[in-house]
Amino acid sequence: MNTSRQANRVLALLFLGAFVMGSSELLIVGVLNLVAGDLSISVSAAGTLVTGYALGLALGGPILTALTIKLDRRTVMCGTLLLAVACNLVVALSTSYDLTLVARTLTGAFAGLFDATAFAVGIAVVPPHRAGRALAVVISGVAVSAAVGVPLGTVGGQALGWRGSYLAIVALIVLTLIATVAMIPSVPSTGAGVGGQARYAFAPRVLAVLVLCALVFGSTFAALTYIVPFLQDVTGVPEALVGVFLLAYGVAAALGSFGGGRFADRNAAGTLIVGAAVAAAALAGLHLFGTNPYLVGVLLLALGACAMGMGPSLQYRVVTLAGPGGELAQSLPASAINLGIAFGSFAGGVALGMFGGSAAILTGLAIAVIAVPVAWATSRLQPPPATSHSEKVCADHG
């Protein structure tokens, strides 16, 4: 790019794309009851639509990234957005649960490919000393979508119906595609070194933090996937006010995702210990005081701020501990997080189906309790002793 202004426009578009693609994942959580009724399935079965997307992103995203690594990044991004439009249209229009599940799973894989491609484009359009900030823009788009996707789904579902909400997502992806064609420059693949990076990216110290990624988000989404029935059946919140609770959660999570970067810079490992402990305490509070709407609101604020606030520290720790494998490792936290989301939403659904009430909250608490000592253990891990200057810069800004 020739000017900083042009680069900033591209980065703004990457933020928008990451936000829109990410919103399509969690939009469905806020309308889970509506989807279940429309498709004539149980709420726990509808929860597998969250699981399918997460598995698609976690497994399909890295595979598609590897398959397209030699292609121009602009071409990949345009193709990915086009396929995402098709899949979200299927979700919006299909009356078949099986077809909807397939479309959701494929959408997840395309979202994973989009994020990886956006990282590459972001780094390409800025000078080397701004690479970390470019990565942060894409991460922020994903983080904000995770923060507000659920309340947006709830509000949009009430105003437009859940299918109308997905048609709105389709329209936004189309706009993003048009802007991508007009604004994103050609970014040829530099394509080398994946094999050489793999032994660093998949080293035991990195895998340990990836396990922590899965536990943190697994615990959160075991509860969050089924928070609407919890608020209605346990807390007794009227349907018209559920969106207010979820919006409060979304605002807290968005603030946590932005503020978490400062804590990551200061002490990423320590942030993960404190964040995991507070998230566990918030889930315990939801179970113990779930019938008190005021306390539930406060506890959802704490859970949102802590869960999303840990995101930058998790990314930072993975990339730093990978050392020379940092470029490849950048794509791994998203996979680990979505495997955690898939497991958490599945486990919460099974518990809810068997026991009802606050069973999904208790499932999240059990996972969170495991995450605390894992966070402490990973805080003692150190990166490999020798990295090049460029790798240190990447790690510092990861």
TrEMBL record:
InterPro entries: MFS, MFS_dom, MFS_Efflux_Transporters, MFS_trans_sf
Subcellular location: Cell membrane
Stored Pfam families: MFS_1
Domain Major facilitator superfamily (MFS) profile span(s) in chain numbering: 10-383
Key words of the record: Cell membrane, Membrane, Transmembrane, Transmembrane helix
Membrane topology recorded in Swiss-Prot or TrEMBL: Multi-pass membrane protein
Keyword Transmembrane helix: yes
Transmembrane segments annotated in the record for this chain: 12-35, 41-64, 76-97, 109-127, 134-154, 166-185, 206-228, 240-261, 268-288, 294-311, 332-353, 359-378
Main location: membrane
Record-given protein name: MFS transporter
Organism: Mycobacterium hippophais
